[in-house]
Write a structure and sequence with these properties.
By secondary structure, this protein is α/β, with parallel strands linked by helices. It has 2 domains: about 160 residues, Response regulator (Rossmann fold, 3-Layer(aba) Sandwich); about 240 residues, TIM Barrel (Alpha-Beta Barrel), CATH 3.20.20.70. The protein has 16 helices and 15 strands. The strands form 3 sheets. The chain has a 7-stranded mixed beta sheet. Helix 14 links the parallel strand 14 and strand 15. It is globular and about 60 Å long. The relative contact order is 0.12. Bound molecules: iron/sulfur cluster. Iron/sulfur cluster binds next to loops.
Length: about 425
Amino acid sequence: MNILLINPPNCGRSIPEERYGIDSLKQIFRGEPLALEELAGNLLQHDVRIADLKADPDGLDALLAGFIPDVVGITGVTCEANTMLHLAAKIKDCCASVVVVGGVHASNDPSFFNHPAVDFIVVGLGKKVFADLVSSLEKDETDRGIPGLLKTNPGADLRRPDCCNTVIDLVDDRPPAYHLVSQYRHHYVLEKLNINMGFVASAYGCPHRCSFCCIKGQTGGRYLTKSIEAVLRDIRLLGDIPVIRLVDANTFGDIERAKALGQALIDADLHKQYLADIRSDTVVQYPEMVRQWQQAGLRAVIIGFEGISDASLSVMNKANKASINGEAITILQEMGITIVGDFIIAPDYDEADFARLGEYLDNNTVDLPMITVMTPLPGTDLYPQQKNSIVNHNLDYYTLTNAVTKTKLAEKQFYTLYAELLATSHKNARI
Ligand code: SF4
């Protein structure tokens, strides 16, 4: 079968830009569409193509001029959900293909895609489910019963499907089809340093339950890891690309396995530098493991510090302490590991809150602070808590840089202080 997998273009909208001309807060996603490359790796007996519209926003028409897909898969996060539907409608118009959607938003709010332009919704990781669906379509079966798959039925209620959420879903004996994005590869660079960067997944899901986090729907709340051999294989498949971003939500969610992977990376002597997500309490509890990973090539870590007080961390169900965040910063700084730190500001921030976060960033060496706005994404525990306070329901704005609940400060002042904080904290950014 002819299969086309589409990564939507950058399409999130920005309130500060549209209303106040502040263009520094707009969210741009970069990097390769690894989720689609993983799906494609399990479909290689078919003629499968990937259209990365983030790298080539106008590339779809040219591709469709020479390739009529039987099946089209479209992935995306919440701020891309409307665009996914537009793409689905376009595909239905031009090619009458079977249209399948998946990814974070489809997993967290499948009913959003119960739409005439969509035929199937994949809930969860999808690598096995998508391949099972294609094989079922090929055989023209009607009774599918594939766990994690929903047939759309516009106008009717959709029941969330049972998913298996086990390592079987990872299909990690089939590597990602990295070769299918070779024409876009020059776009996949570490922006600040203009160095080529490749994505590898080593784990999915997370054992924690932060209230704002949307990854739970991907694995039904479970933490699943690829085999160590599969991780090494994928890194090797990226050839001479010098920097590997482990795109896991939490690479270190299982300490014994993380130690085994760190040792395997050392033994394999791959001469790579790694970027990976880790919690601050993991750094403080297991500094020797971080040192081991540094020996393996760990150059930078991404840490969700989120808040600067115990009270704010508790509200987010972060299960962590502000003092632990501080300890982790000191440990990593002493080791010389670059810290990319995520912080979340709340729409009810006032001037004093912005000043406090600014002061914290002045006094703590977070090499590259990333600051986002608390957003009740569908599928998170935060969503039911804040559902009735949402004032902006257009998902195009759910980029994590817009306030979709009411700001306490006048809106213009909120975004002005937000932009100033970001600019000040990035002035001395090192990565
Ligand atoms: S925010 Fe990080 S630690 Fe919390 S649940 Fe999500 S991935 Fe896990």
